[in-house]
Amino acid sequence: MNLIELHILQSFPVTCLNRDDLGSPKSAMFGGVERARVSSQCWKRAIRTVAHEHAPELFAGIRTKFIGPLLEKAAQRIACSEEQSQAYSNIIVNILGQDKAAGKVKTLLFLSPKTMDHVVSNLHESKQITENMVKAILADDKKTAEKGLAEACKAAGKILKNLGTAVSDAADIALFGRMVADDASQTIEGAAMFSHALSTHAVRSDLDFFSAVDDEKIDTEDAGGSHIGNIEFNSACYYRYIGINLDLLKQSKMFDQVQLQEVLKNFIHAVVMANPVARRNSMFGYSVPACILAVKRAGQPLSLANAFEEPVKASKNGYIAPSIAKMLATWDDMKRIFGLKSDSEVTVSKDGKSLDTMVEKMTDMLN
Predict the structure, then answer these.
(1) Which of 84, 153, 181, 305 would you label with 146, given CA atoms 20 to 30 Å apart?
(2) Distance between CA 229 and CA 208 in Å, rounded?
(3) Cα 353–277–170 angle (5° rounding)?
C-alpha cells in the first residue's frame, strides 16, 4: 500500500469541539487517564465542507435522504419534461428504498451531481419508461400511481448501476467512502483513514456558569438575570492521524494525473485547516496545527498515538513542546526498531517547513 500519512498535533483553548448526547465534550480513557476526544466523523464533516468550499468542481458530493428534488434537477439538465423529471425521480427513489416523505429515501445517500446525471440519463436513454407509464406514475388515483410505479421500476432494471460510475466531481466520495446497506454493490471504500483525535495529556472538563440579562428587566435584585445555565468545556492538545491510500484512490479511475494532484492538494489543505464548528459563536477556538509530520511511504498504515499512552506532563511552556518531542522521537524509534522506511518526510512547524512546501513534496511524489 502506498500512503501519505499526516500526524497532526493541534492545541485548542476553551472549547467544546464535539459534544455527546448530554452536551458534554466527548472523552475517552487511554493510558489509564481520561482524555479529551473529537470523533473522526466530526472532523471529517468539517474537512469535507472546507474541501468543497475551495474546490467545488472536485468535491461536489451531497449526502442526503432528500434525493428526489436533486434527481428532478438532474433530469431537467438533460432537457426532460417536468412530468418525465418527476416520474424518473419517483422511480429511482422507489428503487433506492422510499420512506413516507416524498422524494426521501430511508438512509443517507452520498452522491455527486454528475453521478445523478449519469443515472437519470441512463434511464432516459434506455426508453424503458413509456409515456403511459409516466402518466400512470403521476396519476391522482393512488392505486393507479402505485401500479404504474411498480411497472416502471421493473422495467428500469439495473438502472442504478451508474451509481458506481467514475466521475470527476466525486473526490469526497472516493476519499471518505460510501456505504449503502441495502445494496453492497454501491458501497465504495474510502481511500482516506481517520483516527479519533485524542488529547496527548489527561483532561478534565470544566463548567462555565452563564446568565442571560433581560434588557427590559428593572428588578435589580438579580442584576437583571433572566436565564442561567451551565456549559461544559475543556482545553487540550490533540493528536490526530490521517492516512491516504494512494493505490485505492488511483483505482477509482475518477481522475487523470493533473486532477489527482489537485484532489490531494485540496484534501491535505482541508485536513490541516478545517476545524469542528461546535459552539463557534460562543467559544471561538479556531486554530492551526502546532506540528505536522507528513510521511510518504509504502506499507501498512501506522498511528503514532502510542507516543502518548503515557500522558504528557505540561512543561513550563505548556503541552505542545513536549508533545512534539514525544511524537517525533516515537517515529524515529519505530523506524529504527521495525526497519520502517519512507520515500519522503516533511515536518511542518514554526521551526520546520511550511504547509505549501509539505503539500508540494507529498504530491510531487506521484509523478
Answers:
(1) 181
(2) 8
(3) 75
